Amino acid sequence: MFIGRKLLIATKHKKENVIGPILEKELGVKCFVNTSFDTDTLGTFTGEVERKADPLTTARQKCLLAMAQANCDLAIASEGSFGPHPTIFFVPADEEFLLFIDKKNDLEIIVREISTATNFKGAEIKSEQELKDFANAAKFPSHGLILRTNKADFSAIKKGITDWETLLGTYRQIVETNGFAYAETDMRAMYNPSRLKVIADATQKLAKKINSHCTQCNTPGFGITEAKSGLPCAFCNFPTRSILSFIYTCQKCSFTKEEKYPLGKIEENPMYCDVCNP
User: Fold this and answer.
1) Any domain includes 233
2) pLDDT tens string 226-266
3) 236 and 252 part of one domain
4) How big is the CA angle at 222 (ends 229 and 268), to the nearest 5 degrees?
5) Helix (H) or strand (E) holding 77
6) 218 located within any domain
7) pTM here?
8) Pairing between strand 74-84 and 6-9?
């Protein structure tokens, strides 16, 4: 279905460096980027352009706008969000949505990847020592930094800083008139190898999902749509909250398949049972 077709990667931040090789190998597509398409019009991490839609909707907008501009029928886009982990609230996380659209076959395939392997942070900086400590903790200079007068000010902002001379020089200029600076990690993919790794992991997951076909109609993207709890307790046999099965659903013919014991366990430790360990 995809071998030899041109796949547009909707990005201006060098995501094609990790997405392209994986999908060319796994799907047989020929990836390209439309350099005239500006994804920043849909939102920026630093806030000059507010992202008005949720991440998945924004990724879909990227795909559709880029496809219209390039006159192609196959595209992929990613959209990332950074903040507290959805379940481990005190740990920062990188949440990436990856969306694959095939207009020719009326397909939309989505994956989501969440990782705590991120350097995401920001802070007011009042001394050069504080700046050096912040930079070292943020994996600078392999990971880029951003400096500005304060978190809400977009008038004086320096992005993509990757060397100490520029970092210290920019900080001194801001401090002369402002007294302090606001430092933050540059979360754009080309300045953040940690984020690129998460996008690469999401791409591998996407390729696996695309290559999973419905056993009834052979449509790609036969993926997990529901996780059922109820794995029995090893002591009392009461259903626990742990996963008993995954439900796979075809987006074309709606065929469903249940895979029991997908995590390789047929019973759960009593410590996770609400009866044995209330």
Assistant:
1) yes
2) 999 999 999 999 999 999 999 999 989 999 999 999 999 99
3) yes
4) 20
5) strand 74-84
6) no
7) 0.90
8) parallel
Residue with tokens 């990188």: 94
Token duo for residue 32? 């390209």
Residues 12 and 80 both lie in one domain: yes
Residue-number span of the structural domain to which 51 is assigned: 6-118+192-210
Assess whether 199 and 67 both reside in one domain.
yes
Write the CATH number for 177: 3.30.1490
- DSSP-derived 3-state class of residue 192: coil
Name the residue with tokens 């990782």. Answer: 115
Alpha-carbon gap, residue 17 to 147, rounded angstroms: 26
Q: Could you tell me which residues are beta bridge partners of residue 105?
A: none
Query: At 261, is the secondary structure helix, strand, or coil?
Result: coil
Identify whether 247 is part of a domain. yes
pLDDT digits (tens, 9 = 90+) for 61-75: 999 999 999 999 999
End-to-end CA distance of the chain: 51
Residue 137 domain-assigned?
yes
Neighbours of 109 (CB within 10 A): 21
Distance CA 40, CA 51 (A): 9
Residues 80 and 206 in one domain: yes
The reply to whether 76 and 105 lie within a common domain is yes
250, HSE (Cβ side, Cα atoms, 13 Å) = 16
User: 99 and 15 in one domain?
Assistant: yes
- Residue-wise DSSP of 204-229: HHHHHHHT-B-TTT--B--EEEEEEE
Q: What is the largest CA-CA distance in the chain?
A: 69
Tokens coding 53: 């839609």
What is the spatial distance between Cα 124 and Cα 60, in angstroms, rounded to a whole number?
Answer: 35
35 burial (CB, 10 Å; 0-12 / 13-18 / 19+) is: exposed
What's residue 4's pLDDT?
96
Is-contact 35 70, C-beta < 8 A?
A: no
